[in-house]
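anyone seen this seq b4? input:
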Amino acid sequence: MASVLKVDKLDPQSGTALEIGTSGDTVSIPSGATLDISASTLTPPATLPASSGVNLTALNATNLGSGTVPTARLGTGTASSSTVLYGDNTWAAAGGDNTPTFYAYCNDASAQFNNTTDTTVVLDAELFDSDSKFDTTTYKFTPTVAGKYFLYGQVRMNTNQAATLFGASINKNGSTIAGARFSVENQGSGVVTTIVDANTTDYFTLEAYQNTGYNHNFNASSSTTYFTGFKLIT
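predicted toks r here
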């Protein structure tokens, strides 16, 4: 039968070192008992035994002298050669992308813009439209994604024709935000570009103006009469 020693305090007989047990012995603390060393200094061995780290807090990362932390422990998401760890502790693709993006052009050789009237350019065909945000019936670009957008448009008449004024403009929700008018002596061509803020409901159109004295056909081609744009990465 094991003997029981009941005392309130153990002190070393001499010096300041107290040793419990002999090498090879096992010193056990039974379930339900508490070993309180909160006011003391614990010097662990060079190699810690396997144990749960649930209650291990305030670990200073500068004390990690070697080894690496597995990427699976650094954040949520999937770590790969094409992702980076963001400040919100998530893995995601770097940089973002420039979508929505589109390129619409006039493919209708019979489409006209009126004399002395700003006319929405007929853009009934597309080279690309990443998110289907351009409507080839209403000729509107409605990105539905808030952000800054780069927009570029070009308009050309289909024949040589002198005009006192010829121009192109970009409209936002029906109002001009960028454009210019200038005199031409031959086949009129106008270019307009802008960077604009858009919310989720804003829409944009390309407009044309000419005063040749009569209605005039657009030059229907993907390289002469077109409207293109994309979302900027900010």
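The mean pLDDT is 87. The chain is about 0% helix and 35% strand. kinda curious what u guys think
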